[in-house]
Amino acid sequence: MKKFLSNYFNFDEKNTTLKTEIIGGITTFLTMAYALFLIPSVLSETGMNQQSVFVATGLAAVIGTLIMGIYAKFPMVLAPGVGLNAFFAYSVCLGMNIPWQTAIAGVMASGIIFLVISITGLREIIIKAIPQNLKFAVSAGIGLFIAFVGFKNAGIIVKSDATFVQLGNLTDPNVLLAVFGILVISILMVRGKNTAIFIGMALTIVVGMIFGIIPVPSKVISMIPSMAPTFGVSIANIKNVLTPQMMLVVFTFLFMDFFDTAGTLVAVGSKAGLLRKDGSVENGSKALLADSVATCIGAVFGTTNTTSYVESLSGIAVGARTGLSSVVAGLLFLASLFFSPLLAVVTNAVTAPALIIVGSLMCANLKEIEWDKSEIAIPSFLTVILMPLTYSIGEGIACGFLTYVVLNVFKGNYKKIHPVMYVLAALFIVYFII
User: Fold this and answer.
1) pTM of this prediction?
2) Its principal location (predicted)?
């Protein structure tokens, strides 16, 4: 078996070993295991069954990661994305009052489109069509959005009739627990711990139980819950996505998932030595295909867009270089399905710190934007700032992209704007009019 694995994953060529790949897979899993509990907790606020979503999330991660490891042979792990998850729950369902049944059908539609563009090669055209500065702005804007959601859920920020928002009650036990979680994760990250978010959430849960803020679960392991409440709902409601409002939602799902994966793919490929001289990533097309298939499967099960996690870099940091590390992580996700009772202890005070810290990390892309050019700075700023202020990632993207086209036309750069951007601008105008 060892020889077979060595030959299949090209251990000698990649200068790695079986032990290194196993350690890399375990490291990556521990770094992103928080998603298994964070995703269902957020989606439960839309009315979705939390235990059903837990299983759907786990299975989507299992299948997507195994395809990534076995088929693409790429050291990257998949799971439903935190940013996409927040957009689905807080912007689409709670913000736009779209039923989760229709929204999950939108996830399915975006997955199918992603699958088509991955197979046909349209992905290169789309990647080139969106200006790099706007890609950075979208990522940073999503970071601010999910951080704002985290502050709100924790009670650190509350509504105010006079100023819209204000500082919450810092003497409230749940608020103090969330603040503790933020500090612990931040300190662990400063100390260079790859598993900072996972350990921070675990310590917050333990402290919460000690002080009676979080209930102590009666058991830890149980049989895998049923997916009946969410399974197949996306297929049954697919016809409901054919509205202007849902088309914007589907586009946003697609945009976020597509560029999230593309960016992570390049980052992981570069660190793992899988970046070719022409800038392409070894087995990159297969990796994108794995991502799109996982999104479709996850939507059928009942969870949001499955995407590539930048936390995969933690496995790369300890030496992982092949898809075997992904296989190891996928099998650990499968084993995790038996720990659904732990969902009861994952409260807002536990998940909010993770949202806030992940949001801060996503804001790193702000430094890449060309702020000295007004035709770039203004659309980028609007994209970033309007996401949290309108409580809508989609409307932030729409305003930013539309402004970009208008300003660059008046700047005289109309020939440099890709036709796809003109099409998107027209669609956004129609959306706002309707």
Assistant:
1) 0.76
2) membrane
